[in-house]
């Protein structure tokens, strides 16, 4: 059996130096703030494996550390401790912190695509939808403008944005911007797609359509998806396995059915019982 | 004698409700039984007895507190479902188990037949479509429903679509939570016929039934569940309802 594509190994991200108390391996606290030194542990000892072609969920409320985790998985920032191991790149699972700056650029351009919760982090609002997609191909070293326009146009067609290629991104609706982000994330055929709350804040009908497009992409390309969400119905529809994050820590892990039907941790029980 | 296809050994399950001050709800106690290959077992018992909990503990939607569930896979190897990693567990159960719950949960705005086609593995599109249509018709679902979003289905239609989705794959063991509840007698007969055909093809099953006619037709053995335990067992031919 093939091994994981990506592994998070005891990731921690702290804001502050920490002290003897909060660095102790068995340190636990109610919040992610050390009561002694005030260091914020945005993530603490987070581990998981994602298998090729699987949709893996990360669940938690705001402030749980989900977007921080996405940034680390996107190599936009380094963890304070722990490692990301990544497989398709070289033989076997390789820790990414060993990579050179150039290798990291390669990973971010070709191996990993990201859709941020806030489209402004990925998209230039004053540039056309097509331009935003082409920009990513340029970043990957492509120089043939006609070819790039063709590929970008196809990607946008798949995202049901046919005919919108030359419209300024800032004039598009939220749902469309989200789909431009997805087209952009997919254009260099990554092996892992990171989705940070891809449908939060969208109207329900737009949400259903966006999720359907993501499902189609997943079936067609067979890539692994890491999906951050606080919405259990989105999780159930999309993902097979998940972790539940609270104050930067994994409080529970399992299949989505297990987490939803037989939650064990008090926090998971609270979240599941609060779902509509 | 060959090993059973599925074996439950000393299953216990107690729910701990943290939101209610840690209240404990015992649901299964020391449940053991074997399912032989090709056998159908009917679970009967009062409401709240623990029948659905038992099915979910078998397929690992609920994690038993103690005890084991052993499964003999297609290659004859014993797999311990209670000790397996969750990724391997899903690979195995998605391929080999057909669990049909009472609730339908499917993608919004996808038609019924398309949902079935998503489950077709290793079939050419035309063959998959023919198979899906066939199952649809066998379960007495009207062809007019094929492209309808299931959100508008009646209770009985949803229930049958759930079974249809499961039958699109090639499960070796069926786990059925009241597959004939809420159906009129004619439709119920159709479902029982479909299940009987699967049984004749060598599929094993365990199901919860309140309908004694279905039990009489389908089950080789009846296990009675009460207060989370198996309190009686009888071979079906020996019983009269
Ligand atoms: N996820 C859960 N969390 C807490 N308690 C649960 C859970 N699932 C079941 N129970 C409890 O376990 C007991 C057994 O329930 P179960 O659903 O297994 O009964 P059943 O025999 O299938 O009943 P019915 O015939 O009404 O479907 C009940 O007291 C139920 O409230
Ligand atoms: Mg039940
Ligand atoms: Zn500290």
Automatic annotation (TrEMBL), chain A:
Boundaries of every ABC transporter domain copy: 28-272
Protein name from the UniProt record: Putative phosphonate transport system ATP-binding protein
Keyword Nucleotide-binding set for record: yes
Keyword Nucleotide-binding assigned: yes
One BP term from GO: organic phosphonate catabolic process
Keywords: ATP-binding, Nucleotide-binding
UniProt cross-references to InterPro entries, sorted A to Z: AAA+_ATPase, ABC_transporter-like_ATP-bd, P-loop_NTPase, PhnK
Molecular-function GO term, any one: ATP binding
């Amino acid at each position: 059996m093939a091994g994981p594509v990506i592994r998070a190994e005891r990731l921690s991200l702290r804001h502050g130096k920490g002290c003897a108390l909060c660095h102790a391996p068995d340190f636990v606290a109610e919040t992610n703030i050390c009561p002694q030194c005030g260091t914020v542990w945005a993530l603490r000892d987070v581990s998981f494996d994602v298998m090729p072609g699987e949709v893996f969920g990360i669940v938690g409320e705001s402030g749980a550390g989900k977007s921080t985790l996405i940034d680390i998985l996107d190599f936009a920032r380094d963890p304070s401790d722990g490692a990301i191991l990544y497989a398709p790149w070289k033989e076997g699972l390789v820790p990414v912190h060993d990579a050179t700056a150039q290798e990291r650029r390669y990973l971010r351009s070709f191996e990993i695509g990201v859709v941020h919760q806030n489209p402004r982090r990925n998209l230039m609002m004053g540039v056309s939808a097509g331009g935003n997609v082409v920009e990513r191909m340029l970043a990957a070293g492509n120089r043939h403008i006609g070819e790039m326009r063709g590929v970008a146009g196809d990607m946008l067609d798949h995202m049901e944005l046919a005919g919108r290629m030359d419209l300024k991104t800032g004039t598009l609706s939220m749902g469309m911007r989200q789909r431009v982000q997805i087209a952009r994330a997919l254009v260099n055929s990554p092996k892992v797609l990171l989705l940070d709350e891809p449908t939060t804040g969208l109207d329900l009908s737009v949400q259903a359509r966006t999720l359907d497009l993501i499902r189609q992409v997943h079936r067609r390309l067979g890539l692994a998806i890491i999906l951050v969400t606080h919405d259990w119905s989105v999780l159930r529809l999309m993902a097979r396995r998940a972790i539940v994050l609270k104050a930067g820590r994994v409080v529970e892990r399992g299949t989505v059915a297990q987490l939803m039907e037989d939650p064990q941790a008090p926090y998971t029980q609270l979240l599941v019982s609060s779902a509509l | 004698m060959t090993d059973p296809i599925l074996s439950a050994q000393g299953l216990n399950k107690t729910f701990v409700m943290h939101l209610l001050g840690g209240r404990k709800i015992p649901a299964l106690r020391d449940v053991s039984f074997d399912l032989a290959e090709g056998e159908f077992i009917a679970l009967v018992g009062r409401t709240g007895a623990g029948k659905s909990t038992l099915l979910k503990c078998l397929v690992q939607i609920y994690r038993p507190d103690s005890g084991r569930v052993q499964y003999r896979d297609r290659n004859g190897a014993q797999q311990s479902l209670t000790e397996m990693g969750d990724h391997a567990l899903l690979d195995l159960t998605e391929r080999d188990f057909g669990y049909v719950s009472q609730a339908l949960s499917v993608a919004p705005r996808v038609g019924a037949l398309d949902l079935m086609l998503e489950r077709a593995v290793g079939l050419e599109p035309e063959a998959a479509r023919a198979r899906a249509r066939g199952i649809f018709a066998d379960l007495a679902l009207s062809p007019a429903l094929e492209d309808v979003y299931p959100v508008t289905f009646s209770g009985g239609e949803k229930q049958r679509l759930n079974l249809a989705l499961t039958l699109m794959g090639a499960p070796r063991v069926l786990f059925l939570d009241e597959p004939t509840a809420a159906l009129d007698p004619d439709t119920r007969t159709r479902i029982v016929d479909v299940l009987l055909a699967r049984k004749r093809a060598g599929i094993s099953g365990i199901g919860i039934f309140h309908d004694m006619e279905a039990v009489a037709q389908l089950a080789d053995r009846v296990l009675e569940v009460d207060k989370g335990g198996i309190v009686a067992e009888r071979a079906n031919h020996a019983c009269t309802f």
